[in-house]
């Protein structure tokens, strides 16, 4: 699960996942990298499901923005993504751990 904790808060709130491991859109399986963009969208490297998920604030389900086509080496597949980052132009970079590569995706998730 991914939790959001406000400064000085005693407890956080679940903003993504939190229902145990699984493949459905409200589940994550080995979440690793997390980043929030300028629109407050939460992006998660869902390593065990070989995909990148996005949650908008208040969503109960995420959407698959990259991968989700099974583990593999094709450009539309990932193999255990472990981290992600945006550049100043909004392009998304994904560390595709077991493919030993960094994938760049042009900004198209707005």
UniProtKB/TrEMBL annotation:
The keyword Repeat is assigned to this record: yes
This protein's UniProt keywords: Repeat
Domain of life: Eukaryota
NHL repeats: 71-108
PROSITE patterns in the cross-refs: NHL
InterPro entries: 6-blade_b-propeller_TolB-like, NHL_repeat, TRIM-NHL_E3_ligases
Gene3D superfamilies: TolB, C-terminal domain (2.120.10.30)
Gene Ontology MF terms: zinc ion binding
PANTHER family linked: E3 UBIQUITIN-PROTEIN LIGASE NHLRC1-RELATED, PROTEIN LIN-41
Record protein name field: Uncharacterized protein
């Amino acid at each position: 699960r991914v939790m959001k904790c406000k400064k000085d808060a005693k407890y956080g709130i679940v903003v993504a996942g939190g229902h145990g491991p699984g493949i459905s859109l409200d589940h994550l399986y080995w979440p690793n990298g997390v980043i929030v963009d300028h629109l407050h969208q939460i992006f998660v490297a869902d390593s065990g499901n070989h995909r990148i998920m996005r949650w908008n604030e208040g969503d109960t389900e995420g959407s698959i923005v990259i991968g989700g086509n099974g583990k593999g080496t094709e450009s539309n597949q990932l193999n255990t993504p472990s981290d992600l980052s945006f550049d100043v132009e909004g392009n998304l970079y994904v560390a595709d751990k077991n493919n030993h590569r960094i994938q760049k995706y042009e900004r198209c998730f707005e």
